[in-house]
Structures are given as structure tokens and as C-alpha cells.
Write a structure and sequence with these properties.
Length: about 425
């Protein structure tokens, strides 16, 4: 996936850019599912918009051109085509190989259209792509080509949103600004959903209440009775997410929960296991000095895929006994961003994060799961970012991560990254 904070932070860098109704900052990654309403479709400021001839439709193209360089000082990551931190790809035990990579796959293009809707309201349509489609292909060495993929494709009208975007369980505002994807322990998932959000002004900020019905995708690690697995996962009901919070320019607190059901079909029978998760996150900007503290804590049972480092570990099913159990996930992160107050918008972020997988004993003891399943992951990142020209950001970062398996073997990763990023 592309840098989860690239879009909204790049917009913040552009102090000279005039405000538009639907900006990358307010709509692409701030997880404010519904932008503010306006009585007409025409943008208050046409900066960056084009009007389609003979229509009342306005369109805009946004994007990020981003290139990163990474060198693994120790514990080389076995994933060759990206500079992301994927805990599952940290070698266990640690290998001393030194890997070096240049990558531009995190570049992003975003197209949006704004047009009239009923009762003089507006409807907006969005499509966003990057180049992280496909894995471990020969395109990297043969032609330096990569597959494009859809990050987002949705329509928003009034208080409703339909399509693919960030899950309602994700809070991008709580992500520290890092060069590559956010730290471990943060919910990171985009999927198709139907969403509704209501916002109310309060003396202390804005209260928002959010509900989403999201794509169902059952997860189960299956222990086969014979040599081959015959049980299959089944998707029978959507995930349901409810959340509420208060936000303002200088702070945000967001509490939400998810309910889901994992299903497995075996010998004409369907086995079901309910899962749930809770998350609390937010940020606080210290007055006058602009420094920002962000945090996130989460706990769940049977919700593995909402965290990319526990995806596929939501449940365990044994064909021999038909035992069907959930695995638990506990995660958290904290970040501190300091601004140095220069014209180059020089800033630095320190972030720490962890994730612990409370795998069921039967899951760990099974022959198919012995030793190769994550037990605990943590990461530490520190960086320095700044503007060298309008819309042109550069940065460096040090990353440390450790992965521990259920058999108590572990691996470490130490990595240096550099980045150049241009937004338009």
C-alpha cells in the first residue's frame, strides 16, 4: 500500500495553495467520510478544478509522485519490490544480508468530480490508484513496470457514501507521519462499504456519529484431516462498524467497534464464529508550538484482517474435530511530531508501536501452524522531513522492527530510508 499519510500531509505543506471544497487533506485521507455540505455544486474557489463544457460538473486531478530508497543495515526484508514494513516478511532468524532498493510504486493519482444533486446539494465521485498491484513478479527486473490497483472508488452524496475507501474501523488522523506505511499495530484496511455519517456542532468541537456496512471476507487457518484441505471459507454476512467521536482543529478522539462473522463450510455443514473489535484513537496539537501527539489502541477477537500483520490469523478450524476458535489481537501506537518553525516546514516524528497476537492454543499446537505464526511484532521509527520547494518534500528515516513467532524464535530489521515527494 502507499504511504497512508502522503496525501493529507502533502496538502498541509502547501501553505500557499488556496482552499477547495473537496481537498486531499479533507477527503482523501483524513477519514472524514463525509465532507462539509454546500448549497451549490460550484466550488467556492476554482483553483485546480476544470468545468466540463455545457455541464455543471467540475473535475480535478490530484496526485503524488513519490520515490523512496531503502537500505537494510541488518535483518534484510525478504519482500523485494517495496520499501514497506511488512512484519511477515522480516526474516526469522535474523539474516545479515544488506538489501538496497529504489521504489516509485507509492505514487498516487486521484480523480474527483463534483456535480449538482437533489435539492441543490452536491454529489462527488472519486477514483484513486497507485502502483502496488501484484507481488513478486518479474516486471521489476525485466521492465521496471508495475500493476496499477484501485485504492478508492466511491460516490458521496449528502450523508451517504458508497464504494471502496478506508474502512470505518480505520482512523488515518491518528497515524504518525512516516516515510513508508504506518507503524505496526494500526488498523489499515480499504474495502467496499456503505456508510452514513452525521455531524453536530458542540461547544467543544464537532460530534460525529458514523455507521458502515462493509465487505465480508471470512478468515480461517484450516488444519486438514487428510493431506489436502477440503473445508472452505464462506462469506454470509457483512461486517458492521459503529463509531462516534469529537474532533476539532487541534484534537480528535474517536471510539468505534466492529462486529463480524467468520464462516467455514465442511462436509455440507456451515460453521460460524462471531468476531468483534474495539479501537480508540486520536491526536492532540499542543497550542502555540504546533507539535502533535497521536495515539491508537485496539483489541479484537476474530478480526485479523483489519491489521495487515495479523491478516489471515482471525480464526482456526480443525477438520478432525470441527473445532472453530477465534484468535485475539491487541495493538497500540504512539507518535510525537515536532515542528522546528522554519520556512522549510522542517519537522520530525518519533513513533513506537506494537501488536500481539493471542493465538488459540489449538491453533499454535496444530501441525500446520507450528512455529510459523506471528506472536508479537513491534516497531520504532524516527525521521526528519522538510520542504525544499513548494509541493516538494524530502525526508530521511530510521526504522527498527522485531518479529517474534509462536516458537519463540525472532528476527530483527534495521533500515534507513530516504524519500522525495512531489504533489500536484
Amino acid at each position: 500500500m502507499a504511504n497512508l499519510l502522503a496525501e493529507n500531509q502533502e496538502q498541509k505543506d502547501q501553505d500557499s495553495q488556496e482552499e477547495v471544497i473537496i481537498s486531499p487533506e479533507n477527503h482523501i485521507d483524513h477519514n472524514q467520510m463525509m465532507p462539509g455540505t454546500d448549497p451549490v455544486a460550484e466550488p467556492k474557489n476554482k483553483h485546480g478544478f476544470w468545468k466540463v463544457p455545457d455541464t455543471e460538473t467540475y473535475v480535478q486531478v490530484l496526485g503524488i509522485i513519490k520515490a523512496t530508497a531503502a537500505t537494510d543495515i541488518s535483518g534484510g526484508d525478504s519482500y523485494p519490490e517495496s520499501n514497506y514494513l511488512y512484519a511477515n516478511n522480516i526474516n526469522v532468524p535474523t539474516k545479515n544480508g544488506h538489501n538496497f532498493r529504489l521504489c516509485a510504486r507509492e505514487s498516487v493519482f486521484h480523480f474527483q468530480a463534483l456535480m449538482p444533486f437533489f435539492d441543490k446539494q452536491k454529489i462527488s465521485a472519486h477514483i484513486e490508484t497507485d502502483f502496488m498491484g501484484g507481488e513478486n513478479t518479474s516486471k521489476d527486473t525485466e521492465s521496471c513496470g508495475y500493476d496499477a490497483r484501485i485504492r478508492k472508488a466511491y460516490v458521496h452524496a449528502g450523508n451517504f457514501l458508497v464504494g471502496q475507501t478506508w474502512s470505518g474501523f480505520v482512523d488515518i488522523d491518528s497515524f504518525p507521519e512516516t516515510i513508508t506505511a504506518g507503524p505496526v499495530g494500526l488498523p489499515q484496511l480499504r474495502q467496499t462499504l456503505i456508510g452514513y455519517e452525521q455531524r453536530h456542532k458542540l461547544d467543544v468541537g464537532k460530534l460525529f456519529i458514523r455507521a458502515t456496512i462493509e465487505n465480508a471476507r471470512s478468515e480461517a487457518k484450516i488444519n486438514p484431516q487428510e493431506a489436502a484441505v477440503t473445508a472452505k471459507t464462506a462469506n454470509q454476512s457483512p461486517d458492521v462498524i459503529l463509531g462516534a467521536g469529537i474532533d476539532d482543529e487541534n484534537y480528535k478522539v474517536f471510539l468505534r467497534g466492529v462486529l463480524r462473522r467468520n464462516c467455514v463450510t465442511y462436509n455440507t455443514n456451515t460453521h460460524r464464529k462471531s468476531g468483534y473489535g474495539l479501537a480508540l484513537s486520536g491526536f492532540y496539537k499542543i497550542p502555540e508550538i504546533k507539535d502533535k501527539i497521536s495515539f491508537s489502541v485496539a483489541y479484537g477477537s476474530g478480526i485479523g484482517r483489519y491489521f495487515h500483520d495479523s491478516a489471515g490469523q482471525a480464526t482456526y478450524f480443525d477438520e478432525r474435530t470441527c473445532l472453530f476458535v477465534n484468535n485475539k489481537t491487541t495493538a497500540g501506537s504512539i507518535g510525537y511530531q515536532h515542528f522546528f518553525g522554519t520556512k522549510y516546514n522542517l519537522r520530525s516524528v518519533i513513533s513506537c508501536a506494537f501488536m500481539r497476537m493471542g493465538n488459540n492454543e489449538k491453533f499454535v499446537d496444530s501441525t500446520m501452524a507450528s512455529g510459523d505464526k506471528n506472536k508479537q511484532v513491534h516497531s520504532f521509527q524516527i525521521n526528519m522531513l522538510g520542504l525544499v520547494a513548494e509541493k516538494f518534500t524530502v525526508g530521511i528515516e530510521f526504522m527498527h522492527a522485531k518479529r517474534k513467532l509462536e516458537n519463540n524464535t525472532s528476527g530483527k530489521l534495521n533500515r534507513l530510508l530516504a524519500m522525495v515527494r512531489f504533489s500536484f
